[in-house]
Amino acid sequence: MEHRVLTDNEFDQLWQEASARSQGHRLSEGYGQWQRNRRRTLGTLAMLTVLAAVALPLLTGSPRNDVYEHVYCNRTGVADGQWAELADALLMEA
User: Fold this and answer.
1) Which stretch of DSSP H or E encloses residue 14?
2) What is the pTM of this model?
3) How many CB atoms lie within 10 A of CB 20?
4) Over 17-71, what HEC string results?
5) Could you give the CA distance from residue 27 to residue 18 in angstroms, rounded to a whole number?
6) Under a CB-based contact definition with an 8 Å cutoff, are residues 71 and 83 in contact?
7) Which of 30, 46, 49, 84 sits most deeply, having the most CB atoms within 10 A of its CB?
8) pLDDT (tens digit, 9 = 90+) per residue, 41-71?
């Protein structure tokens, strides 16, 4: 049986091929779990995004500092100032 001496380059190449094969095998075994984790993470992020989109308007509420410049009424004979005072009083109670 004859033994052949490998050069450094041949040894490095064989080492890299063996390493790549074992690395590829390990990656292919873990792909299913990685894909499940990825789907779970994306689902969680989507759920959190929807939750934030729903909760944010509820938590912030509408601003209460609206300015009303005009008062409109379909009744004649009532001064605009009276309606403005009534609206002001109603808004101050809220």
Assistant:
1) helix 8-60
2) 0.43
3) 10
4) HHHHHHHHHHHHHHHHHHHHHHHHHHHHHHHHHHHHHHHHHHHHCCCCCCCCCCC
5) 14
6) yes
7) 84
8) 999 999 999 999 999 888 877 656 666 666 6
